[in-house]
Specification:
128 residues, alpha/beta, Rossmann fold, 5-stranded parallel beta sheet
Length: 128
């Protein structure tokens, strides 16, 4: 487990990221830290997973810019509205959300990020 991260044993994390290498790297780091991970390439796929597994998902980690009709910020707001117990981590290498643009209690992480920082944020959100 990376640098004393506060991972919650087997908490389920949904990673939504269209860049396969970034998604796999994040999934591998979270799995190594003791999380269970579901991966989605875009918001539409994430909504399918949320429909099936929302009661078990502790954290949604989503990129802002993805293909399809729904971006990550809209996905985060949708998740907040329908599944308020899910912790939200929004990441981007291109966007920097303005104050008030993200759902309350969500976190933002700029890319490129250190996977230890990702694991720490997810751990905190899973315990919230």
């Amino acid at each position: 487990m990376p640098n004393g991260s506060p991972a919650v044993a087997s908490a389920l994390v949904l990673i939504v990221e269209d860049e396969a290498l970034i998604r796999m790297t994040a999934a591998d780091a979270l799995t190594a830290a003791g999380f269970e991970v579901i991966e989605a390439e875009h918001a539409a796929e994430a909504l399918v997973h949320l429909g099936k597994h929302a009661r078990d998902i502790a954290v949604l980690c989503t990129d802002v810019h993805m293909p399809g009709e729904m971006d990550g910020i809209t996905l985060a707001h949708h998740a907040c509205l329908h599944w308020s117990w899910i912790g939200l981590l929004v990441v981007s290498g291109k966007a920097s959300p303005k104050v008030g643009e993200l759902p309350a209690l969500s976190r933002f992480l700029a890319k490129p990020y250190d996977v230890d920082v990702l694991v720490t944020h997810v751990g905190h959100l899973a315990r919230a």
